[in-house]
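Data card: per-record layout.
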Amino acid sequence: MLRFVFGALARSARRRALQEQRYRQEALEREHAFSGGSSATGPFEGMGPLAHSPFGSLLEQMVAGPAGAAGGPGSFQRSLAYDEQRGQWVDISDQAPQPVGRPASPDDRRSPDTERSPAPSSRTPDAGGRGGAAARPLTNLLGGLGSLGAQGGNSGGEGLEVQPPDQLSRFADVGGMESLKQEIRDTVGLMLEHPDDAERYGIDWNGILLHGPPGVGKTFMAKAIAGEYGMNLIHVSTGDLVGSQQGQSAKNIDKAFATAARNLPCLIFFDEFDSVAQRRGENPDQESRRTVNQLLTSLEAHREERGLLVMAATNSIDHLDPAVIRPGRFDRHIRIDLPDGPARRAIFAVELADRPAAADIDLDELVSRSEGMTPASISKVVDMAALEVFREAAGSGRKLELTTENLLDALGNLGGQDRPTVEHWTWDAIVLAPEIKAQLQQLQSILEDPESARRFGIDPPTGLLLAGPPGTGKTTVAKVLAAQARCSFYPVSGADVMSKWVGESEGNIRRLFERARENRPSIVFIDEIDAIAARRGSVEVHDSHVNQLLAEIDGISGQRGVFVVGATNRPDQIDPAMLRGGRLSRTIVLGLPDTAGRLALLKLQTARMPTVEVDLDALAAKTDGRSPADLKALCQEAGLVAMARGGRSAVTQADFDAALDRMAAGVRGNSTSY
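The structure for this 674-residue chain is written out next.
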């Protein structure tokens, strides 16, 4: 294939060389006739030593250079353009360059060169290098090898878009965040509105760093700041800076600042700043070091530029190089956190403002159900609900409006299959002491509406420990709590977390809590938590994943919407640090039921059984010391005895007595020593 390609190129070059030789001979003859000379030119006169080589004519012109060209003879400055109609490369070195946007004059169109070779196409590649295929045939033919010298690789920084302020959002479009907007008005806003007074008082802002969890609106806030104060915006992402050649990323940073300086007043915004200004000591890549060095140089060079505001956003401020965020550079750090109740209400109002929404939408219910959600998640919920209503309206041909039910359904569907829920468990499905049930229901109300606790100056609890003998309903309580509070439910045990590989247990714990945070509000239920969070000091490897669990629970306080429930039979084996305030701060002991509790449990378990003359009071008296799980097993065993008897008879007292005998025999067999 390559032999065919280069053969075709050689034949084309020979034809072009012969044609150019004819043109040169004709030009010499015209010049001779014009000068009146009578001496005849020889057959080889005017031909150089390279004329007979395949690329001889082209090489001779490159070596000799055009007459009067800059550089004189010997310069290698030749301009070629591809003629689409003739399918050849044409030498346009002798043509005067046409200014961009000015059509050729009639004299230019009637020049001999134009008559002999039609003008090349006026299409030029765009900033991103997406020129037409016909503009660079050698690039397409040789896989881009022909453009290595001329193009210099993908610059990455040529296509920076400058957004004018009339195309940007303003503070009125930002739902909630009133304290943050007021902080901007009182600091940066004053400097932008009164630059002369700010200079007189010696006040300047070198850079603003927005940091916070993903999806909280950092990019949207930067655009709103630019639109509010009438500034152009240059949004610089990682793809705009990364280049294909070594050192290109540093050049792109310099180009970004130069573009901003030409479009004052301007706000230059670096998104995902940690990918650009990462710690130099932790990255041995020299290209990353050059990028950070150029960023520091550009910040210092443009710090006195009035009308230029530099802003950046990151999810993790710890990954940034300390030299970037020191005073004098990005010295103003603004954290954007999850929206509170009033902010979520404002976000819902802004998202529903331009949509056909019903007038009686219950914003209070939406606010209580969206605890722990980011503004991006709330926007996605409204989009999902609007799409569902639009689909129904398009199918029926009616004009429908968004309702509270549509938004609540979208809230329930957010997260898809990665949002595990529990069945419709209710408090009627379990029998608890009245004071314990009251504590759990109060906890449910706080999970549903954390703002109710903050109004009393109380921080919402982050965890609960359920302790008690086996079979007392600890797992059932956690399921009911998750179902009633409408939370995602993540049940795990020691086997789901522990691994024989070093570091894998910590990774499992981290991934568990990451999933829970992505699908807030959620409950993480750790059964037999004493196997995961036992007292530290005995096994060093065990201590590492206990530390990881403590760190994840501490992180929940900064990211609301995740609640941890632990269950154990041995609370004395749990590390004391796990039970302090701010972690599993509340402990509820579920003990064995008394006679009234056992009677209530027997009635609950036999409510759907066909029973005849069964004395539940007597059974409650006979089952002293039994747990709720034992009582459920007793009812199940009595039903099996009735089924084994055959027929369609109901469950009788004799069946329960037989079931009691079997359970007693099982207990005696388990307690026998061999």
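Known properties of this structure: DSSP finds 26 helices and 15 strands in the chain. Confidence is low (pLDDT under 50) at residues 37-46, 66-76, 99-157.

See the next section for split statistics.
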